[in-house]
Amino acid sequence: MSLTEDTPTPKRPSGFWSYANPVKFLGLSERILPAFWGLAAVSLIVGLIWGFFFTPDDFRQGSTVKIIYLHVPSALMAINAWFMMLVASLIWIVRRHHVSALAAKAAAPVGVVMTLIALFTGAVWGQPMWGTWWAWDPRLTSFLILFLFYLGYIALWEAIEDPDTAADLTSVLCLVGSVFAVLSRYAVNFWNQGLHQGASLSLDKEENVADVFYIPLLVCIAGFVFLFLALVLYRTGTEIRLRRARALQAREART
Amino acid sequence: MTLTIRDLCVARGGVPILEGLSFSLAPGQALILRGPNGAGKTTLLRTLAGLQPPLSGQIDGAEEQIAYSGHSDGLKSMLSVTENLTFWADVFGQRDIAPAIAAFSLEGLKDRLAGTLSAGQKRRLGLARMLVTGRPIWVMDEPTVSLDVDAVAQFAKAVQGHLHAGGAALIATHIDLHLEADMLDVTPYRAALDLRAGASDEAFL
Amino acid sequence: MTLTIRDLCVARGGVPILEGLSFSLAPGQALILRGPNGAGKTTLLRTLAGLQPPLSGQIDGAEEQIAYSGHSDGLKSMLSVTENLTFWADVFGQRDIAPAIAAFSLEGLKDRLAGTLSAGQKRRLGLARMLVTGRPIWVMDEPTVSLDVDAVAQFAKAVQGHLHAGGAALIATHIDLHLEADMLDVTPYRAALDLRAGASDEAFL
Amino acid sequence: MRALLTRDLMLAFRAGGGFGLGLAFFLIVTVLVPFGVGPNSELLSRIAPGILWLGALLACLLSLDRLLALDWEDGTLDLLATSPLPLEAALSIKALAHWITTGLPLVLAAPVLGILLNLPTPGYTWLVLSLLLGTPALSVIGTFGAALTVGVKRGGLLMSLLVLPLYVPTLIFGAEAARRGATGMDTTTSLLMLAGITAGVIAIMPFASAAALRVNLR
Amino acid sequence: MRALLTRDLMLAFRAGGGFGLGLAFFLIVTVLVPFGVGPNSELLSRIAPGILWLGALLACLLSLDRLLALDWEDGTLDLLATSPLPLEAALSIKALAHWITTGLPLVLAAPVLGILLNLPTPGYTWLVLSLLLGTPALSVIGTFGAALTVGVKRGGLLMSLLVLPLYVPTLIFGAEAARRGATGMDTTTSLLMLAGITAGVIAIMPFASAAALRVNLR
Amino acid sequence: MMPDLGKYADAVLSAYGVSILLIMLLVIITLRKGRAARAALEAVETRSKKNG
Ligand code: HEM
Ligand SMILES: Nc1ncnc2c1ncn2[C@@H]1O[C@H](COP(=O)(O)OP(=O)(O)OP(=O)(O)O)[C@@H](O)[C@H]1O
Ligand SMILES: Nc1ncnc2c1ncn2[C@@H]1O[C@H](COP(=O)(O)OP(=O)(O)OP(=O)(O)O)[C@@H](O)[C@H]1O
Ligand SMILES: [Mg+2]
Ligand SMILES: [Mg+2]
């Protein structure tokens, strides 16, 4: 990695924002990535094996409860990924840090895959539970809409060539899209009352699932969080390298 | 109102193209921009017109003063010549389009749809648009493309008239317009390769 | 193969524009079309290229012989310079694009997307396309639009080379190309207003 | 401002300007539905309000394509951006022109097409009312989509992809109102929500659209 | 010939080239239908085959827009028409490229979207089969529409208008096959008719398209 | 070893299978793209250093 050698250090902010410098960010991510990959692997393997092999069947749902170890973490991450993109977009709009825009770009495909997993596991779970793969329940429906927002966001990134223009436009889309996603959620609720589970992870003990399911679920959630962080960090690094190669090439082309 | 540019650096596609440009353009003055293909004339003119932000440097006296004409003319092929001109006059708060029609001898084409004009006739209409803006500073990118010799002379006369009336003009062109004007060759201002300040790619270099 | 035009009448939008044109273009010969804006040069060239039928008259020796270049260049902005040229070479059954690249000094721009080129660079690429067609007769409509002085010289050289190799060229232009070529001013051939024969409106007159 | 509105309307009415095409598309979609789902009239009348709303939405969407792209291609937008008119105002006017040439005709045509799909009698008023309240939102949101994708050549399909999810709340409340109206249920809440969305969107979206367009002009 | 096909596919896959957008549109139309007609799953499953066919047809239709218009605008068509490649062949290849980038993905995605609309289980095979037989006809007919309207600026909507009626027979037999399949009835006749239409159209349409294009280039 | 999944075996196994497959795909694609980017950057860097 020869990134650091030929780069002068002009006025750079210190503290948290200093990591908005791509080069410094690459250095940092290079250092902490192995830890994230490791944590993700360990907690995913432990959590999924624990959940799959060593938890009892639910008295009502039978062995299908095991799906919860994939379904809930992926659903959580799907929403949080969009939230992260929103924050990153805001940072780009306000402070114009390239890393932030690229992180948003890097997170979107991860978010889509998480959404897909949530949708798929949900559908597979729905078949035995509700007797149908798909129902137009508000939760499911708003998830589908979220999926569409992801698709549009990614398509817009892909369609625009100039990286800064693309960053600006996708950020605006992300902001507007978030407002409409919330709006859709309310609209959908009004439109159809649902079949889906209520919040079961709340701290309210009455509502909560039994501990036997709860603890491995937490481990799985941690695994998905670390996986998400590792993937996003790594992909952001990839985007930074591509941008740098592009910049160098453009410079070359002008000689 | 004088247009003053100080130490300007402009970029396209995130790459700095021209740097260290400083000049000023006083009322009554015309400035011809020269430079080989790809030198960055278009990029500079678009920046001055406010269509893209400069990388660094200052532009004073441009706000609401500039009428811009680019590679394309902004004509609607389904509107007639008069309708096209009237629209732009209205947008810029002007009324009278007759002088513009006369200046580029469009009288005979007045009621023709813009889409049926030949390349040079279209261009003449595009240039006539500058006259109905009422703006003092004309910024024009290769205005004489497709024009024949007579039309080029007409154009030179229109510019001259604009200058006499206290206007100013900044024109990028490859041909000789036979105008009394200062010349600015942008070639020497080509951005140095290691220039970093402010470029959007800079952070990655 | 000589291109021979006899008593040609061309029309646009149903209106006859030029009539009574006769000329021929032998291998090794270049012919420059002149005429003020709106004279009908574009209409004539498109007719010769087979893009529109003539109203009357004969065109011999044009079939599959003509490479046409019009006001727009047929470039894809999302393909690189090489990819654009390779595509046209393939379509015309040619292989080697290197001479075309060299003739218009596009080496440095080879891998750039065509969309990011400046106006003049795009035009150079459009002209390079003529070299990969392998066709003997070049029919070009204002080829030097947006080109700087060097590029115009390059273009003249390319045409000269083409002529020496037994090709022919028919070029409409408003500027002086410094080519040894015959000149044809189309102004005298302007269709008389009462000309009727063959126009698509004729039946109603 | 007036100049821009009259020009846009004039262009729409000229040959090839696209006035009435949205309408025709609406008609054709409505006509194709029975070919798709079969000619069962009880079934058709049940899905009629929803299909009519969907058809109107799609017709609106398709005509967005020419809202800005034409002006972009011939350089008009560059020139407008350097004119004294604020871009927000210009875009609002363009949205208004779009609504007049597309949305309004759809509203007026909907009852006629309702007959083709056996829309139940009480449904007509509510269908028209909900479309009248909802279509302006479709135009304004669509302008945003057009501003986002104006730099992309033939961005039509991309724009549809971006705009359709944004249309969801409007569609839900609009179609709900029409459906409830057709079955004789209370429509107040859905109509209020619909009006709220339209008002909010008209107030705020032009700023987002102008921001996106400025970026694209850069 | 190969050069044209690879170029078209390459362009489709490049950024902004529009690959996958037809698919996305298909998805979105399918998703919007329940918002329009309501979440009743029994109702949805009855209209599912028809809606899916309609959605595929519309997605196909929308992507036709870029089939020729882009090449027209930048002058490629002028140059292609003066090249050694016969226009008929060029247009057939363009239709093929369109089918590969649009029709085929639609066929593959249809079963997944069937789930969203509760398509009855026996319906899946027949839906896919009928789409596989029918979509090539859609591309070829669409090419004709594109050739007819290529001179019209933003002819997208006009083209839809011209093409939709031409799509009716394909839609009728295709949706009929899918519907009969879903309800367990015999599908042979409709599938045969569909195949007949496709074969006929592939054989004849390119000549009509080339003729139309020649007129437009004039 | 294998837990008895009863009549829901299909559902549970396919959920696990597809999810793990999707995650693997995502990780693999991410890593491959990352490698390619690294290589491309390295190539450009060495070239630009050579040319000064
Ligand atoms: C395609 C179908 C489905 C989708 C898209 C889906 C989506 C979601 C979403 C978005 C969440 C919320 C995560 C959060 O915000 O915390 C969630 C949680 C959950 N889902 Fe599903 N779901 C589906 C089907 C099912 C089925 C069939 C079941 C079981 C019968 C189920 C059981 C649960 C449970 C137990 C939770 C945890 C609730 C909580 O802690 O908030 N889901 N699902
Ligand atoms: N539909 C139409 N109806 C009437 N006249 C038309 C129509 N279309 C074009 N013309 C006229 O035909 C003439 C020939 O146009 P053409 O484009 O051939 O001119 P040209 O010699 O190429 O001019 P330029 O040098 O400006 O490119 C022009 O005067 C034009 O105004
Ligand atoms: N996205 C991009 N990446 C790198 N370079 C670019 C990009 N876009 C444009 N350029 C380059 O920027 C330079 C300036 O272009 P510009 O259009 O300003 O030139 P110009 O002086 O107007 O030339 P012409 O006389 O040919 O019109 C050109 O060399 C062009 O190749
Ligand atoms: Mg230029
Ligand atoms: Mg011409």
How would you sum up this structure in a few lines?
Chain B has 205 residues and is α/β, with parallel strands linked by helices. Helix content of chain B is 26%, strand content 24%.
Q: What does this entry look like structurally?
A:
The complex is a heterohexamer, with one copy of chain A (255 residues), two copies of chain B (205 residues), two copies of chain D (218 residues) and one copy of chain F (52 residues). Chain A is an all-alpha fold and 255 residues long. Chain A has helices spanning 22-53, 68-95, 98-130, 138-159, 163-191, 211-253. Chain A starts with 21 loop residues before the first helix and ends with a helix. Chain B folds into two domains: 1-65 and 136-205, P-loop containing nucleotide triphosphate hydrolases (Rossmann fold), CATH 3.40.50.300; 70-135, no CATH class. By secondary structure, chain D is mainly α. Helices cover 83% and strands 0% of the residues of chain D. Chain D has helices at residues 2-13, 21-37, 41-73, 76-81, 87-116, 123-149, 156-182, 188-217. Chain D is globular. The model of chain D has no long low-confidence stretch (mean pLDDT 87). Chain F is 81% helix and 0% strand. The longest helix of chain F is centred in the middle third of the chain and has 42 residues, at 9-50. Chain F is an all-alpha fold and 52 residues long. Chain F contains one helix and no strands. Chains in contact: A-B, A-C, A-D, A-E, A-F, B-C, B-D, C-E, D-E. One adenosine-5'-triphosphate sits between chains C (12-13, 15, 17, 35, 37-43) and B (116-121, 146).
